[in-house]
Design a protein that fits this description.
445 residues; mainly alpha
């Protein structure tokens, strides 16, 4: 196995950057698509079995989880950032130290979230009109296990072991799907069964991740030194938390303002619409570690931004086109005839596509430590909250507000990052090294 890994690295070193990135893209997208297929299948099966009213409970719990999961996203970005930095300098002892520390801290932080959700489970259940406080406690258990496994998957991502990363995600998604069918369909446990399936799926994946990282964990630990970790945590946390809130704030507010059936409709709409957001998530799996590594070596990274924006746009256009051409068919196949949302899915997909493009810009700037994006994403949270609070008379009003808001957000980020967007298409002069693909073109000319 080590022989083939060394051979692959030697080949990658001789291949232009865009072809290496394309190979990694195909690997990640293929495996992530399989994992996402199982994940979406789980949610689709749950929505069909539970029905709009009960699915609204699962939808708001998942929205709360997604907001909480930005903590995992922050830690993930930090782990990836510094592991790629240490990997570029072959400092595997520091990688082992960082991985072990992140596992300990995330285990403790996950337990703290679980404890808080358990203590306030009755209040949270009453606020969101959730019949059983046990569902909130199970959510806390899932967040606890998810945070721990995020440290492991992020280390695998930072090491750029994309096949291992994809296979672990596929196992997690498949285990969750099968357990969900068993507990919800056969044992009729409803929302609680779905949550138990998610917990067990995550727990079952942990041994496989630990086995993949056994060599790294066995390396003798050393001090990390002063690497600016604390500042990065605080600033990256602010940006990532905002993206997580913007992705789920509308679902949470709809659950609060609307009745169960309507909020169930909107939860299902969010499920279908956020498919396009998964595209940027898969691409960021490649973009963040590669941009971090290239930036730490003083190389130009604009080609990666072009790579992410272009492929995200292509994927989103395909999904949006399908949603506008076959809305009734898509809703019927994915959710069934109970969900009356066919007229909304195309509009909502456009909004989520804009958020996906915004996410590429945010993650790219996190990778190069450009913190001025906080001037846009932090106020954006309060703006979306205000707009939905003022205009939520019907679900259509909420969908239109969400669309207009994401138009504003992307436009603001595009203005802030206009220099980066221009550099995507031009080689920059100066001290920076250019990627092999650009140098090849220059020499050829």
């Amino acid at each position: 196995m080590q022989f083939f890994r060394n051979l692959r690295n030697r080949i990658d070193a001789k291949v232009p950057m865009n072809w290496v990135a394309l190979k990694h893209l195909v690997t990640v997208v293929t495996l992530s698509s399989i994992a996402n297929l199982f994940t979406v299948g789980f949610y689709v099966i749950m929505s069909r079995k539970l029905g709009p009213a009960e699915y609204s409970i699962l939808a708001v719990l998942l929205a709360i989880f997604q907001v909480a999961a930005v903590v995992a996203g922050v830690v993930s970005n930090i782990i990836i950032k510094y592991i790629t930095y240490f990997k570029a300098k072959s400092q595997y002892d520091k990688i082992s130290t960082l991985l072990s520390a992140s596992m300990r801290y995330l285990m403790a932080f996950g337990f703290l979230i679980f404890l808080l959700l358990t203590l306030f489970s009755a209040d949270i259940a009453e606020f969101f009109r959730i019949p059983s406080a046990l569902s909130v406690i199970l959510l806390g258990m899932f967040i606890w296990s998810f945070l721990f496994i995020s440290a492991l998957l992020s280390a695998i991502n930072g090491l750029q072991w994309y096949i291992t990363l994809g296979l672990n995600r596929i196992f997690d998604a498949l285990a969750t799907l099968l357990l969900g069918i068993l507990l919800v369909y056969l044992f009729a446990l409803g929302v609680k069964g779905a949550l138990v399936a998610m917990v067990l799926g995550a727990l079952a994946t942990i041994p496989f991740c630990l086995w993949s990282l056994r060599t790294i964990l066995s390396i003798k630990k050393t001090r990390l030194g002063n690497i600016g970790l604390s500042q990065y945590i605080l600033l990256a946390a602010a940006a990532s938390v905002c993206i997580g809130i913007l992705l789920n704030l509308d679902v949470i507010l709809v659950k609060y303002f609307f009745k169960e059936v309507e909020s169930g409709f909107y939860g299902a709409l969010s499920l279908i619409g956020t498919v396009v957001f998964f595209i940027s998530g898969a691409l960021n799996t490649i973009i963040f570690p590669k941009v971090s590594e290239s930036h730490s070596n003083g190389e130009d990274t604009s080609e990666y931004l072009r790579f992410g924006m272009l492929w995200t746009a292509v994927g989103c256009i395909i999904v949006i086109t399908a949603y506008f051409l076959f809305p009734d068919f898509i809703v019927l196949v994915m959710l069934g005839s109970e969900y009356d949302i066919a007229g909304y899915i195309g509009i909502y997909a456009i909004a989520m596509s804009l958020l996906a493009l915004s996410n590429i810009l945010v993650v790219y700037n996190l990778a190069i430590k450009r913190w001025s994006i906080l001037y846009v994403v932090v106020p954006a949270v309060f703006l979306e909250l205000l707009l939905i609070y003022l205009f939520h008379q019907t679900l259509l009003h909420v969908v239109i507000v969400v669309l207009l808001f994401h138009v504003i957000l992307f436009a603001a980020l595009a203005v802030l990052c206009r220099g980066q967007l221009e550099d995507m298409w031009h080689a920059r002069s100066g001290y920076k090294k250019f990627p092999a693909s650009v140098l090849f073109k220059l020499h050829k000319e």
